[in-house]
Design brief:
The complex is a heterodimer of chains A (542) and B (220).
Chain A (H helix, E strand, L loop, with lengths): L21 H5 L4 H29 L10 H36 L8 H24 L12 H5 L4 H28 L12 H33 L12 H35 L6 H15 L14 H29 L8 H24 L1 H7 L3 H31 L5 H28 L13 H31 L49
Helix pairs in contact in A: 2-3, 2-4, 2-15, 3-6, 3-8, 3-13, 4-6, 6-7, 7-8, 7-9, 8-9, 8-10, 8-11, 8-13, 9-10, 10-11, 11-13, 11-14, 13-14, 14-15
Chain B lengths: L20 H36 L1 H9 L3 H26 L3 H31 L16 H36 L9 H25 L5
The chains are: A mainly alpha (542), B mainly alpha (220).
The complex binds copper (II) ion.
Chain lengths: 542, 220
């Protein structure tokens, strides 16, 4: 692939060993170190968000909600939603994996604006601390959607502080997106044309476009909510001439595209993993590449499907329903292309591949149930029920978290220079898959039977399915806890990683594991397509 | 053109992640345009909400608009346009290597920005005196309904956000004027001047949209 000499493994001067001082981390402009900073931060947030979910699931063991009061339950699901959406899922793959991998993948020394990159981590952390402060001081009970006029006029919890925290972290996501767009445009190494880019970059590029175009609308909407809450201006208050549905329009103009911020990067990861572990060139490269852009584009035109029962005109609802069907097409294109890539490949089932396969199956289920919700009649029936919860958890957790875990295992040797224990990796991938399905599949049925979301108690006939769901959640928790343990263990005791332990294509594997401070000994050049696995010699041994 | 290897040679103004100045220039320019796109979407949210309410309450918004000082709004438009001209002249000057003229033009542009803020402050003071501030002794003359108040909420919010942008712009203009005076820029390397110019033009354009949206609602 490149004209480089074979890289040395375990180089003395890598980005980790360069300097051990704390300040060398806190003031770093190295994209790899910033990726690691993000990794540590979002892992902490994931644990907090998971804790809230654990308490909710425990509470739902009995129909009367034995563990917490209704008000506390409201705060728990708000905390879970706010943390998981803005402080875990949105930054997970872009800010951790993307930050680490993008410059390596394009053969650059760093991102285009390293200082902005560091600033984005600080904004993220400060935003997170502000939001956490709100939760510690008493929490918020509006749900992560902050619907008006409840959030502006009635809730007496920490809406202002939480909204401020989210707004601050929003700017970090804007800066990350801006950095990726400019980096991918201007810093590709010689020979790396657009159509030789790994598909991960196409999906991150599409994600970045959404980040820079949608997030500012969220920022200004939350600013209006905050202003209204502080000053009582009546912007979204029907009693003062304001329109609460306008808030929903503005909010979902961000938050539906944000769903694609949370899933597109996972799709990019899957394209990398499927090709590598089936030793094949990808089927339909340009279809997968352009479907990312199509998702980004159509994703901006479907927000109204969240308001089918909120007083939208029938005609606009019809249009939004149609567009929501259309946005499913590029996603389906990806699934078909991945499947075709697997066909007649020499498949090996290492941990990252298990996650990628899990992604395809679970994402497909999440996507297909999304079509149920895009249908006007069906949506009225299952609106605000557990069906919706199950649907988007199949996308967000079954899709994105699977993609993130796959990416973490795949690039872990590159990031740390160590291999994780393969057996434990596979074991926890299976555990997560089983636990996930047991947690969320019953929720489809619960929702279809009419159990509404966001209640701390429920009718007794729903108990069996709820107990199943809670049992699944405890398996899922074990599945997430194991990687936390063995990945940390591997930092010290894992076998040293070779430069290219998976025999993968892609420039990031052409440098040492972990890479030197400036990524490459000399700038690489590219003379062939991505995923040229068919041209690769058969590897001797892993 | 690849002129640099990992071994870092420092050229004037060249950051180490780039290969050469043209690449850095391209990156900075694209970065600024992307940033301006986010700004457009941020103001866009406000314009959208405003438009939705204006369509709902057309008459009340005309009444609200009549409270504003149209002549100050128009005057301020002229001031900002003039300052944009000076920023354009500054970029032109540094492209020809004229540091002195560039510094002077940037300072004049910043000064015009200050004039804008001064006029805006006078206007705000008059507004408050007439009871047009929705959360402080609100008592506009004539019709005082909820929709007129909504108009004024957006007036304060939109012009306020714009004024924040003007303030940031003035600081940036003066900062880069100081660097220019120190001789940091020349015909080869003057990217930051162009970038601050782009930002300033954007601030100007936002105002050009705010003027008809807020001040010139009433037909005829
Ligand atoms: Cu949606």
């Amino acid at each position: 692939m490149t004209t480089l000499p074979a890289p040395l493994s375990g180089s003395e001067h890598n980005y980790l060993s360069r300097d051990y001082h704390v300040l060398s981390w806190l003031l770093t402009k190295d994209h790899k170190r910033i990726g690691i900073l993000y990794l540590v931060t979002i892992t902490a947030f994931f644990l907090l968000g998971g804790l809230a979910a654990t308490l909710m699931r425990l509470n739902l063991l009995t129909p009367n909600g034995w563990l917490v009061e209704g008000a506390t339950y409201n705060k728990l699901f708000t905390m879970h939603g706010v943390i998981m959406v803005w402080f875990f899922l949105v930054p997970a793959v872009p800010a951790v994996i993307g930050n680490f991998i993008v410059p390596l993948m394009i053969g650059a020394r760093d991102v285009a604006f390293p200082r902005l990159n560091l600033l984005s981590w600080y904004l993220f952390t400060i935003g997170g601390i502000v939001a956490l402060t709100a939760m510690v001081r008493g929490g918020v009970d509006t749900g992560w959607t902050f619907y008006t006029p409840y959030s502006t006029g009635y809730a007496n919890t920490y809406v202002f502080l939480t909204a401020t925290g989210i707004m601050i972290s929003g700017f970090s996501s804007i800066l990350t997106g801006l950095n990726f767009i400019v980096t991918i445009h201007t810093m590709r190494c010689p020979g790396l044309t657009w159509f030789r880019l790994p598909l991960f970059l196409w999906s991150l590029y599409a994600t970045s476009i959404i980040m820079v175009l949608a997030t500012p609308v969220l920022a200004i909407t939350l600013a209006l909510v905050a202003a209204e809450r502080m000053l009582g201006l009546g912007i979204f208050d029907p009693a003062a001439g304001g329109d609460p549905v306008l808030f929903q329009h503005l909010f979902w103009f961000y938050s539906h595209p944000a769903v694609y911020i949370m899933i597109l990067p996972g799709m990019g990861v899957v394209s990398e993993l499927i090709t590598c572990f089936s030793r094949k060139r990808v089927f339909g490269y340009s279809f997968i590449a352009f479907s990312s852009l199509a998702i980004a584009f159509f994703g901006f035109l479907v927000w109204g499907h969240h308001m089918f029962v909120a007083g939208e005109s029938t005609y606009i609802a019809f249009a939004f329903s149609l567009l929501s069907y259309i946005v499913a097409v590029p996603s389906a294109i990806k699934v078909f292309n991945w499947t075709a890539t697997l066909y007649k490949g020499s498949i090996s089932l290492e941990t990252p591949m298990l996650y990628a396969l899990g992604f395809i199956g679970l994402f497909t289920m999440g996507g297909l149930t999304g079509l149920f919700l895009a249908a006007l009649g069906m949506d009225v029936h299952v609106h605000d029920t557990y069906f919706v919860i199950a649907h988007f958890h199949y996308i967000m957790v079954g899709g994105m978290v699977m993609g993130y875990m796959g990416a973490l295992h795949f690039w872990w040797p590159k990031m740390t220079g160590r291999m994780y224990p393969e057996w434990w990796g596979r074991f926890s991938a299976f555990t997560i898959f089983i636990g996930f399905n047991l947690t969320f599949f019953p929720q489809f049925i619960l929702g279809y039977l009419g159990m509404p979301r966001r209640y701390h108690a429920y009718a007794p006939e729903f108990q069996t399915l709820n107990v199943m769901s809670t049992a699944g959640a405890s398996i899922l928790a074990v599945g997430y806890f194991l990687p936390l343990c063995y990945l940390i263990w591997s930092l010290r005791y894992g076998p040293l990683a070779k430069a290219n332990p998976w025999n993968a294509t892609g420039l990031e594997w052409q440098t040492t594991s972990p890479p030197p401070e400036h990524n490459f000994e000399s700038i690489p050049t590219v003379d062939q397509e991505a995923y040229a696995y068919h041209l690769m010699e058969v590897p001797d041994a892993r | 053109m690849r002129v640099k290897n990992t071994a870092i040679e420092w050229e004037t103004g060249l950051a180490q992640q780039f290969d050469d100045l043209p690449q850095q220039h391209e990156a900075a320019t694209l970065g600024m345009w992307v940033f301006l796109a986010t700004e457009i979407l941020m103001f866009g949210g406000l314009f959208t909400a405003f438009t939705a309410y204006r369509a709902t309450y057309p008459h009340a918004f005309e009444v609200g608009s009549e409270h504003l000082y149209r002549w100050i709004g128009v005057g301020n438009t002229a001031v900002l346009l003039l300052s944009s001209l000076f920023v354009a002249l500054a970029v032109h000057a540094i492209k020809h290597g004229d540091n002195r003229a560039c510094t002077r033009d940037l300072v004049v542009a910043a000064a015009l920005g200050v004039v804008f803020l001064g006029l805006k402050s006078i206007e705000y003071t008059l507004d408050i005196r007439e009871g047009l501030l929705p959360w402080y002794h609100f008592h506009p003359e004539g019709a005082n309904d909820a929709a007129t108040k909504l108009f004024l909420v957006f007036y304060w919010f939109m012009t306020g956000l714009h004024a924040v942008h003007v303030t940031i712009g003035i600081v940036l203009l003066l900062f880069f004027a100081a660097l220019c005076r120190r001789g940091e820029y020349d015909t080869e390397w003057h990217n930051p001047i162009e970038m601050v110019g782009l930002y300033w033009h954007f601030v100007d354009i936002v105002w050009i949209f705010l003027l008809p949206t807020l001040y010139l609602i009433k037909p005829g």
